[in-house]
Amino acid sequence: QAEKKKQKAQQPPAPKVPQPEAKEPPKEAPKEAPKEAPKEKPKAAAPAPAVKEEKAPAQNKKDKEEKKEEQEEPEDWEDEADEDEPEKPQEAQEEAEEPAKPEPVPAKNVPKEPEAAAEPDEPEEDESEVVRESSAVIVNEGELKLPDPRTHMNVVFIGHVDAGKSTTCGSILYLSNCVDERTIEKYQKEAKDKNRESWFLAYIMDTNEEEKAKGKTVEVGRAHFETETKRFTILDAPGHKSYVPNMIAGASQADVGVLIVSARKGEFETGFERGGQTREHALLAKTLGVEKLCVTINKMDDSSVDWAQSRYDEIVTKMAPFLKQSGFKDDQLSFLPISGLAGDNVKEAKNTPAWYKGPSLLKLLDSLVVPGRDENAPLRIPLLDGYRDMGSIMAIGKVEAGTVKPGMKCIVMPIGQKCTVAGVFINDEEMRYAQCGENVTLKMTGVSEDELRKGYVLCPVANPVRVVTKFKAQLQVIELPEERPVMTSGYRAVLHVHVSNEECEILKLYEAMSMKDIKKKEKNPRFVREGSIVTCSIWLARPTALDAFLSTPQLGRFTLRDEGRTIAIGRITELPKDEGKDGKK
Questions:
Q1: I need a labelling partner for 150 at 20 to 30 A (CA). Which of 40, 310, 325, 357 fits?
Q2: Are 272 and 300 in contact (CB under 8 A)?
Q3: Which of 393, 401, 336 minimizes the C-alpha distance to 168?
């Protein structure tokens, strides 16, 4: 017996040795049971060894059953098959492989749990659903519509408060037969009841009761209209300085800008002077990627103007130098006079004086050519929102680069959540695909609405966008607040990049030059003032999905705002080389 005990100590997984002794199984059982438990009988590991000692007869029965099983076929004892039973190595290996299969399954599930932050079974179900849905999409692809071949353009209407942006947008929709007569009559009656008869066209865009009562646009309004050659989405941006962040979100999606300027005496001067929104909006539009700007001089039918050419020429001569200084070239600018309320020179050149020879507003928009878009680039969709609709998870955004199709495997950055596009909708109609420039609503699987937030970027799993907490940029300092008249390292502001906004800090100034004398450069300046162009590094409070300007211009432009005003515009020139998930090198 002493020799047998020594053998047991040397070879713990040998169950055949204790057959003749009836008293010894209680001692051996605690050694055997925990090894059997994880593989075949997980419930046997729960009771303590002390309980097993009391129930020795039951264990003897178990031992006998095990002996019979071992005599017939060796089960999953890999060590015994190697050491004690050399005659049956193949059977032992086969059965050793069978229990080995379930072991890697929990190992696969382990990394899924922290990513999905849910039960391990759920993602598997989601994946199967995704496969089913994507296969269904492929099968039904013939039933889905092809997108309209006409070019799509986002047109943002910007300008000082009360310049007539919403009224002009409403006039365009009315003249394009996008609004019926009954709705117009309803709005006319509503405006008359509020003693605001001239606001009825603005009510087409400003549907919120707060906006109607105050006559101020708060959120960016959206509407659609079409011409023979193009499809347009109107983005009616708020003009009040309190809502500039909303305006930035709208203008960042725009391809073309319409800067509405009031010709009425006093109103143009208020909007154009320092601190007015005409200047800031024009500057932001250029920074946010608006390539073509139509400067529309509104309210020309006002009694103080009466379509006077002298007033029109005066506004053009004041605006043109400023817009060129903001970065617009001559071929990117166009000027025209209109009356948004009366609809003069909006669609047709009715009631327009003889001295104006140019096209109407809609004809001008129709003639504009959008810069080339790369449909074969990696997909980039900055998300505006995510929500649940009839049990489906939906995401809204504009395709800035690439093409999105149903069944695409995507990843949401910066959180790294993998998902699948189950459906692509343009204006609530399901399509086979959507190319860059389109505003899309996507039906998603494998992701929750909380993981589709404003500022996140949807991109392919194979080629995700970079996520960083610092980058190198070139800044143009426009205006600094009086209480902080210089910009130094450590200067804090709010950074707006595509539709995301994050707190940031200037880390270091590398090079500066004055806009007046570009040749004279200063290395490692201690500070810079207004009117300077500076190369610096910027730190972000949170990891943000963005790209260098040369790679993806739409994700590489940004503005800095502080104390309710735009202090600088810039572009990302360089991203860190080796960046981890946490944004640190």
A1: 357
A2: no
A3: 336
Q: Which residues of the chain have pLDDT under 50?
A: 14-58, 61-62, 67-139, 579-585
What would the two tokens of residue 7 be? 């053998």
* Cα distance between residue 73 and residue 70, in whole Å: 5
What is the spatial distance between Cα 13 and Cα 10, in angstroms, rounded to a whole number? 9
Instruction: Report residue 393 as tokens.
Output: 């998870």
* 128: amino acid identity, one letter: S
**Helix boundaries (H) for 298-388:** 309-325, 361-367
Q: What is the pTM of this model?
A: 0.68
The end-to-end CA distance of the chain, in Å, is 64
Do 247 and 238 form a contact (C-beta atoms < 8 A)? yes
**Cβ neighbours of 263 (radius 10 Å):** 26
Q: What angle do CA 254, 258, 259 make, to 5 degrees?
A: 120
Tally of CB atoms within 10 A around 13: 15
Please name the helix (run of DSSP H) or strand (run of DSSP E) that holds residue 211, with its range, or none.
Answer: helix 209-214
By the 8 A CB rule, do 278 and 548 touch? no
Q: Are 381 and 399 in contact (CB under 8 A)?
A: yes
| Radius of gyration (C-alpha) of the chain in whole angstroms | 35
Q: pLDDT by residue (tens digit) across 199-225?
A: 777 777 777 677 767 777 777 778 888
Phi, psi of 100 (to 5 degrees): -70, -25
Closest CA to 240 of 170, 328, 161: 161
- CA-nearest of 320, 321, 275, 326 to 297 is 320
